[in-house]
Amino acid sequence: MPNHIELLDLLLKNREIQEADRERFLNPSYDDLYDPFKMLNMERVCVRIFEAIEAKEKILIYTDYDCDGIPAAVIMHDFFHKINYENFFIYIPDRHDEGYGLHMDAIDQFINDEVKLLITFDLGITAVEETTKAQSAGIDVIITDHHLPKEELPRAYAILNPKQDGDLYPDKMLCGAGVAFKLIQALVKKYGEYWKINNGWEKWLLDMAGVATLSDQVPLLDENRILAYYGLRVLQKGRRPGLAELFKKAGVNITKLNEEDITFTLAPRINAASRMDDPMKAFLMLSTTDLAKAKTLSDHLVKINDERKIMVAHIMKDVKKTLEKREDKSLIVIGNPAWRIGVLGIIAAKITEEYKKPAFVWGADGSGEIRGSCRGWGDVNLVEIMAQLPENSLIEFGGHKGAGGFAVTHTEIHFLEERLLKVFAGISTQEKENKEYNIDATILINDVTNENYKVIEKLAPFGMANPKPTFLINGIKIFAIKEFGKEKNHLELAFKNNKGKIIKAIAFFKTRDSYNPVLREGNIINLISTFEKNSFAGREELRLRIIDII
Asked: Dihedral of the CA atoms 333, 337, 340, 344 (nearest 10)?
């Protein structure tokens, strides 16, 4: 392995961090966040919100039900509480009965409730008809979103979305809660003195901006890196009792919280609220300051997340049985009206991981309408695939390159697989190729040291566009093997370095039989892995996390 300075240079080069940007990347500074007023329409939005507050108008905050929209709702809730404004309400649509986006029925309800200002977060950029209806009924609509706009924009009072045409904001890749944070930053900058808000108070909201940035799979570069970096530091202070309870139950030391604790522990529990129950439960868990309520709500989220895991395991069992009987095809389309739509994204992700091909998975919502989720494999753009389907194949669709959602009629679902396969056949082989392992360097088992871990740690937090450094260790001998966990379904390998020290490598939900050939003590293997620190019983141990064995 290269020495420490060379290793750092190599890792930065592999992530295409230019020489001029290295200092900013390695030492994120809150002061490097951009002026929020560089975002198109920010001034107009701030003035309208200020006017609404002064006139004590009814303000409705409407957010998505996931781990981006819900933290955005918490950001707005905390801001209004800070300025002692009470005439605001949070509305989060039901994933099963309403689905994603702004809905006509909800608009009717807001008209009856005499809402004067409707502000959306993490959605709304395609809600043309709904916005028109609200505006014509006397509700000013401010849309804040980060999804790609279509050709026709809603005729809203104002739109905050760095991806819209004409917006010169330097960072286009903020998540929904990231845009919410920029809005509060702007409001505090413009009116903070008037509201008697201490300069820098908004930094306490970085925990929610950080959670959403890490959960929503946006690139952890530029402003997103700063939001995630400082978001983790605010989270480590444990100021939200609901989060403190939730992490305690999961055995996570909140003072040493890292990005994986957000993506693997917190995000699934927040998302479980909308998948299995009511998204407002997650909002209340994050926003409450009441210790008893925090405990009850975090207990509930843990419980329904466990139920979600059981449901996913049952569905995956059905999936495997079905696919065993089917002819092998270049992509997978599978579904059942009995499958809960809230878990379909998880199922699609598990299928792509296991079968190494794109998956389209469908179920039925509360009204019996067929809805689905899809996940990609290789370099294929799912949204482009769905866009190339014959007209009327889908009622609606959307998403990102590697993940999306769709709705389809009961008649058209029978033709979906055939049509997708036809479109897929026209895509170049290169785009279809399986994901490669982005290996940063080939190392020796002797290079697994605390000194090298400290170099790697300088690049944290890790995520999209800044993946955890991955290493290949060729020709190492397995010294010992064991399975651990209640069900003995996790794998631990042990190796010896040249000083006789044991280095462990682990893989969750894998056993010695998961690999071909089956692993045996004394086998010589090539290991692809990352470094990680394991804290147990007050002791820290450096180990490897297995990505694959080849």
From this structure: 10
Burial class (CB in 10 A: 0-12, 13-18, 19+), 423: middle
The C-alpha atoms of residue 146 and residue 76 are separated, in whole angstroms, by 17
Helix (H, G, I), strand (E, B) or coil at 319: helix
Q: What is the pLDDT of residues 342-400, one digit of tens each?
A: 899 999 999 998 898 999 999 988 777 899 999 998 778 888 899 999 998 999 888 77
* Sign of the C-alpha dihedral computed for residues 170, 174, 178 and 179 taken in this order: positive
Mean pLDDT of the region 481-498: 93
Tokens 């919410």 appear where? 180
Q: How confident is the model at residue 290 (pLDDT cuts 50, 70, 90)?
A: very high
Give me the amino acid identity at 531: F
- How far CA 113 is from CA of 110, 117, 137, in Å, comes to 5, 11, 12
- CA dist 287 and 281 (Å) reads 10
Which tokens in the block code for residue 502? 């044991």
Geometric angle at alpha carbon 501, from 252 and 471, rounded to 5°: 65
Element (H, E) at 73: helix 69-82
pLDDT, tens only, 247-258 = 999 999 999 999
In this prediction, residue 434 carries a pLDDT of 47
The secondary element (H helix, E strand) that includes residue 317 is: helix 291-325
Please name the residue that has the structure tokens 């509930």. 300
For residue 17, pLDDT over 70 is answered with: yes
Mean per-residue pLDDT, 193-214: 96
Of 336, 284, 340, 281, nearest in space to 312 by CA:
340
Give the separation between CA 298 and CA 247, rounded to whole angstroms. 9
> What is the DSSP code string of 214-228?
HHTT---SHHHHHHH
Rounded Cα–Cα distance for residues 397 and 132 (Å) = 22
- For residue 349 the two structure tokens come to 């992700």
Please name the residue ranges forming H helices in 92-205.
Answer: 104-112, 128-136, 176-191
